[in-house]
């Protein structure tokens, strides 16, 4: 019983960790994309 409970909690921790990493990556990609889009628009309008 104890081993199964520990295994379950580890699975939850792993899933939470993956979710946190995925969220962090998504935020970084979104910020990078928005900055790139702003830069492209500003340089495009400048030229």
Could you explain the architecture of this structure?
This protein has 47 residues and is mainly α. The protein has one domain. It has one helix and no strands. The protein is rod-shaped. Keywords: Membrane, Transmembrane, Transmembrane helix.
Tally of structural domains:
1
Beta-strand residue fraction: under 5%
Average predicted local confidence, pLDDT: 88
- Low confidence ranges: none
Counting H and I runs of at least 4 residues, what is the number of helices? 1
Order of helices and strands: H
Helix content: over 70%
**What is the multimeric organization of the chains shown?**
single chain
Report the major sheet.
none
Q: Count of DSSP E strands?
A: 0
Radius of gyration: 20 Å
- Could you give the distance between the termini? 68 Å
SS class: mainly alpha
**Global geometry:** rod-shaped
Keywords: Membrane, Transmembrane, Transmembrane helix
Transmembrane segments: 12-33
Key words describing this protein structure:
single chain; mainly alpha; 47 residues
């Amino acid at each position: 019983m104890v081993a199964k409970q520990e295994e379950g909690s580890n699975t939850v921790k792993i899933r939470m960790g993956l979710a946190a990493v995925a969220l962090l990556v998504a935020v970084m990609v979104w910020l990078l994309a928005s900055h790139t889009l702003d830069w492209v628009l500003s340089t495009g309008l400048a030229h």
